[in-house]
Write a structure and sequence with these properties.
By secondary structure, the chain is an alpha/beta fold. It is built from 13 helices and ten strands. Keywords: Acyltransferase, Transferase. Belongs to the thiolase-like superfamily. Thiolase family.
Length: 383
């Protein structure tokens, strides 16, 4: 089996809802990172075998196989195909998995993996009407099989996050401290210029718009909970955002043929399911299984990127895995940086790679909760 290597990784800044990227068509968001990836790696775009992009709510301007549309909008060769993946929030992490699997199998040598999402243009409210956003609507509610198995109970990310907070007895105060720290870490990373190498500025936006310099624990404490009697507030959840990211995955043969320099090796890839009602707890069993299959321990991991869909998700994961908090989301997470659904997996992988290079770490692990009670896990090794 061939090894799969990451050769390049680039992303847009993550735009705040109705911010600097809000008016940019999703195809143009994706096209921007694709052109940047080609420019930075120096690859002949005609040599690419496939383009695999993640996107959630593929309606309106995100419909019609957005991966293919992004590639064509970038002015890149028509003979290169594209396919769009939906594993909910893990869509572009799964895109990386599919790309690496194609390379490892010997069926491809160069595959672009990434994702795009413009949540300002396709609001969650629109997705609810379309019945396509798992976690904000229940498109399966008319299924007899579903009702027989799970009844008519509410299925939402908000309920799942509350269930996790209750099960692991995570207080609102603990989550607010975690959220505040996410903003501080993100702002520190921006001020230190950590993200500059991985970002391709767009439309005058130079860096991520989400982190709030004026946030305080006192302000967080004054917010209303999402549900009456609950613990979660808007400050403890990921931000609605716009953005795109892309990576170039290459085989050993492609490295030699095209004179490419590998930056990381895909060490492990897997996905696992858990309770679809609690929905967001799957990273815990998925990480445990991945470490066993990779013959590793959590202490072998130098940097972790776990999506901060809600503060309770990451705090429960930390308790169960025993990971050192200092190694987890060292430059902040989605609570501060934002969560452009279909692009976040590739954004996390891009940031993970650059953080390993910045610190000299060897192994990085990425995981994220996904609609339907699922989670992907990827382990990469810096080379």
């Amino acid at each position: 089996m061939s090894e799969a290597y990451i050769v390049g990784a680039v992303r847009t800044p993550v735009g705040r809802r109705k911010g600097g990227l809000a008016a940019i068509h999703p195809a143009d968001l994706g096209a921007h990172v694709l052109r940047a990836l080609v420019d930075r790696t120096g690859i002949d775009p005609a040599a690419v075998d496939d383009v695999v992009f993640g996107c959630v709510d593929t309606i309106g301007p995100q419909a019609g196989d957005i991966a293919r549309t992004c590639w064509l909008a970038a002015g890149l060769p028509e003979e290169v195909p594209g396919v769009t993946v939906d594993r909910q929030c893990g869509s572009s992490q799964q895109a990386v998995h599919f790309a690496a699997q194609a390379v490892q199998s010997g069926n491809a040598d160069l595959v672009v993996a990434g994702g795009v999402q413009n949540m300002s243009m396709i609001p969650i409210a629109h997705a609810m009407v379309a019945g396509q956003a798992l976690g904000f609507a229940t498109p399966f509610s008319g299924s007899k099989g579903w009702r027989a198995r799970y009844g008519d109970q509410e299925v939402s990310q908000f309920r799942g996050a509350e269930m996790i907070a209750a099960k692991w007895d995570i207080s609102r105060e603990e989550m607010e401290e975690f959220s505040f720290e996410s903003h501080q870490k993100a702002l520190n990373a921006i001020d230190e210029g950590r993200f500059e190498r991985e970002i391709a500025p767009l439309a005058g936006v130079l860096t991520d718009e989400g982190p709030r310099r004026d946030t305080t624990l006192e302000k967080m404490a004054g917010l209303k909970t999402l549900v009456e009697g609950g613990r979660l507030t808007a400050a403890l959840s990921s931000q609605i955002s716009d953005g795109a990211a892309a990576l170039l995955i290459a085989s050993e043969d492609a490295l030699r043929t095209h004179g490419l320099t590998p930056r990381a090796r895909i060490h492990h890839m897997s996905a696992r399911g858990a309770d679809p009602i609690m929905m967001l707890s799957a990273p815990i069993p998925a990480t445990a299984r991945a470490l066993v299959k990779a013959e590793m321990k959590i202490d072998d991991i130098d940097v972790v990127e776990i999506n901060e869909a809600f503060a309770s998700v990451v705090l429960a994961w930390l308790r169960e895995t025993g990971a050192e908090a200092e190694r987890v989301n060292p430059s902040g997470g989605a609570i501060a940086l934002g969560h452009p659904l279909g692009a976040t997996g590739a954004r996390l992988m891009t940031s993970l790679l650059h953080e390993l290079e910045r610190t000299g770490g060897r192994y990085g692990l990425q995981t994220m909760c996904e609609g339907g009670g699922q989670a992907n896990v990827t382990v990469i090794e810096r080379v």
